[in-house]
Amino acid sequence: MIGPVLDGVAVVLGLNLLLCLVRVLGGPTGRDRLLGVLLTGSTGAALLAVLSVSTGVPALRDAALVMTALASVVAVARLRAETEEP
Amino acid sequence: MSAGLLLEILSAVLVVAGAGFFTVGTVGLVRLPDLRTRLHALTKADNLGLGLVVLGLVLQAGSVGAAVKLLVVWFLAMPASAVVAHLMSRGGGLGATGGAAEGPGTPGEGGAGGR
Amino acid sequence: MGDDPVGLLDVLLGLAVVGVAGTALTARRRMGAVVSFLVLGVLLAVLWSRLGAPDVALAEAAIGTGVTGALFVDAVTRGPPETRGAPAARPAGPVPWQGVRAALPGGLAAVLLGAGLGTAFAGAVLAGTAPGGLTGQVLGRMDAAGVEHPVSAVLLNFRSYDTLLEVVVLFVAVLSVTATLGEERPRHAPPSARAATLVWFCRVLAPVLVLVAAWVLLAGSDRPGGAFQSGAVLAGALILMDTAGLGPGPDHGRLLRAALVVGPAAFLVVAAGGLVVEGEWLALDPAWAGGVIVALETLLALSIGVALTVVFLALGRGRVSPP
Question: Do residues A23 and A34 lie in contact, with contact meaning Cβ atoms separated by under 8 Å?
């Protein structure tokens, strides 16, 4: 009974992923674009978690974990690069 | 009503609510006018959206290990998004003194590139 | 999983992947292109999961979203300021045709390459149509493999030569980067010039990433995981440590070099050992295969992590573009 609900939620999260592109392509500053990608990462992690339960593949939880952890690394890379001279 | 069915309904409600918060966050990211207001939207999606989805999935997880791993994802994303939001909202450089607000929505970019 | 009917999500993902790839190539701003590429990585990870390939999804999440993402973002933020307002190289007039003519050879090459690769893949799939196909052949040999996960068995036992060459390629890349860029003094702001919050955050998060890397490595024996994914997460941890001021400094040269070499060296030792013991390069006695593979994967993960970190740091040291 929860299967179709999870599938529906997966579609909604997928649409959210695409909506983030607006900010990615349009956000006037680099930081805005970074926000877009961070939200994409969180939404992607949630989507992978939902898929891991609805399709019963435990490795997708690992993928969600890895994606969450490394999204922080991307943010840190941007923040540290901003403080340094080109 | 069996406990299993009740659990499923609860999961469904939580997951749908989480997806709802994600949508609110994404719409906020797209529609709000300024970096700092967008940061608000991002943190809502990361905390509440991800949290509710994870809680709903934990109820369906099937093993303690799986449930714990899902919770770890949430507990990792929450402080990360909070700290990143704090750091990104600072204007100017990220010097040790911490640049204060430089005016609404124009965080300076320390590097010359990267627009 | 591949038996599910193609759902709405799959159609959405398929179209989105093509669309986002297009925006990554044509975005006006460099940061926009880079960030589109990262979004593409996330979409691909989800797509791979829908296609029943969790190993590739994990690898895409670790490498595409993670280390490559950090590298690109760092390079773009640090690069020269964009000088495009109106693209100066585009005079009016018959130029659109010139642009198409210039793009034709590249486009033609891409189409031919795609067609060639597609035929090769289709041929490989069809060639294995005897009992169970390629999957059946791998599964039939699993008792000699030493690990329980078929993908790890293929990567580190049946086709270990390919993995060895991949690691060597990474090693060569590190050599090229450090040879051309590594000699300048570090241009990093000293940690005291960085926000205290950022430094604290990195110090707290780095051990968490090391733990995740260890988990991904150990998971590789009976579920998706393995040296490359683990190495990518480890590289993330090392980048965080460097941001916090705990990274490799000028006096760590020997340690870095040792860490870089130990993975490929161990692989070569195993390969030669196979030659000596079994008479065949890279042969693994099934009795030992499990232990050897775990040890090898650990050392490989270390080397891969250090290699990716060195590339990241070296690119921050030298000039990415002329002054």
Answer: no
